[in-house]
């Protein structure tokens, strides 16, 4: 009897170059690994997808029209393994029958550290003190009794985390180390874990979100973008927040209603925001370093406000997060090869359960 053929793993786009060695290093099962780079052409991509049992796409592949057509038409595909966090673009209609799409882990620590840095920076204002001191000013000297010279603390402040999953857990554990009060909100009711002081469930308590918003000094959005969370934060929610509160969005821009967000910041209905995820991404699909003609990340001029800290969707961007993601991806491929259910299944094709 001839030996059983190895399952075919297709790595497409950037991950075929930068991630292949790491995935191979962490795999414990045997695969026929094949690669496609953007210069190889659409026909080669479609041919590879037709032979693949599993696909790990680089983010650049998502801008190649032939990818989705080839994915949907693939007769063998059973696993689309996503190597990054954002999957709000993913729908069952993109997958062939019997295929599933799974996410990965590894970015939780990185995003938690970003969030703690954001809260600390908001209170301590290192950027402000550094810029002022470089001008020769001693305005913020520790011997000054002027009110402006004093910075704040996150000690005993309350952080409320909307979307209490892996990222939220890592945020709460770190916040507890700073003696913060921690609150979390998830969809379904669950026991309150030791790293939280309060855990609400939106499906069981329609007032749970308002409770978190009213009590929080920092509101962190760490939820998925879906039908239930799109536009979740709007005028009523901003009205429920403290006027000293800060909103930190590491989820997706569309979780917050854009005009209401801008209005709340401009009118100082809330104290400010740290924004990492946006409404427009004009640089996507461009070569690295190339600037778009209009680089605006939103329809409103958030970047002109003086009560925001803004970053270009990079809260999960570290070498260490990439390494952990490759370990997570390899573990899921191993599960598939052993006939087991992969972790973090997010979307199923029409007949995936058959």
Automatic annotation (TrEMBL):
GO CC, one annotated term: cytosol
Position of the signal peptide: none
Record's keyword annotation contains Oxidoreductase: yes
Presence of the UniProt keyword Oxidoreductase in the record: yes
Protein name, UniProt field: D-isomer specific 2-hydroxyacid dehydrogenase NAD-binding domain-containing protein
GO molecular function ontology, one term from the record: hydroxypyruvate reductase [NAD(P)H] activity
Classification via InterPro entries: D-isomer_2-hydroxyacid_DH (IPR050223), D-isomer_DH_NAD-bd (IPR006140), NAD(P)-bd_dom_sf (IPR036291)
Organism superkingdom: Bacteria
Transmembrane segments: none
Keywords attached to this entry: NAD, Oxidoreductase
Domain (D-isomer specific 2-hydroxyacid dehydrogenase NAD-binding): residue spans on this chain: 117-315
Matching Gene3D superfamilies: NAD(P)-binding Rossmann-like Domain (3.40.50.720)
């Amino acid at each position: 009897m001839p030996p059983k053929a190895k399952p075919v793993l297709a790595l497409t786009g950037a991950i075929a170059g930068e991630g292949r060695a790491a995935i191979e290093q962490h795999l414990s099962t045997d695969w026929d690994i094949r690669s496609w780079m953007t210069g190889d052409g659409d026909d080669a991509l479609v041919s590879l997808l037709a032979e693949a049992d599993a696909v790990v796409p680089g983010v650049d592949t998502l801008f190649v029209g032939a990818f989705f057509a080839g994915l949907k038409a693939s007769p063998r595909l059973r696993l689309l393994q996503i190597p990054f966090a954002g999957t709000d673009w993913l729908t069952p209609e993109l997958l062939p029958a019997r295929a599933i799409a799974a996410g990965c882990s590894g970015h939780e620590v990185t995003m938690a550290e970003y969030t703690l840095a954001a809260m600390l920076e908001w209170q301590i204002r290192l950027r402000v003190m550094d810029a002022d001191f470089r001008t020769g000013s001693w305005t913020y000297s520790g011997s000054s009794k002027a009110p402006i010279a004093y910075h704040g603390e996150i000690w005993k402040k309350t952080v409320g985390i909307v979307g209490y999953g892996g990222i939220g857990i890592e945020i709460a554990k770190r916040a507890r180390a700073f003696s913060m009060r921690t609150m979390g909100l998830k969809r379904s009711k669950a026991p309150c874990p030791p790293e939280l002081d309060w855990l609400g469930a939106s499906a069981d308590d329609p007032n749970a979100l308002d409770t978190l918003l009213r009590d929080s000094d920092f509101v962190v959005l760490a939820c998925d973008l879906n039908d239930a969370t799109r536009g979740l934060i709007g005028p009523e929610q901003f009205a429920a927040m403290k006027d000293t509160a800060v909103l930190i969005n590491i989820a997706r821009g569309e979780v917050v209603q854009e005009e209401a967000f801008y209005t709340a910041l401009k009118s100082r209905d809330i104290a400010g925001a740290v924004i990492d995820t946006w409404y427009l991404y004009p640089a996507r699909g461009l070569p690295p370093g190339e600037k778009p003609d209009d680089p605006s990340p939103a329809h409103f001029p958030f970047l002109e406000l003086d009560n925001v800290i803004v970053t270009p969707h990079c809260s999960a961007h570290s070498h260490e997060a990439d390494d952990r993601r490759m370990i997570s991806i390899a573990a899921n491929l191993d599960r598939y090869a052993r006939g087991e259910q992969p972790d973090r299944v997010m979307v199923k094709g029409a007949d995936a359960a058959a």
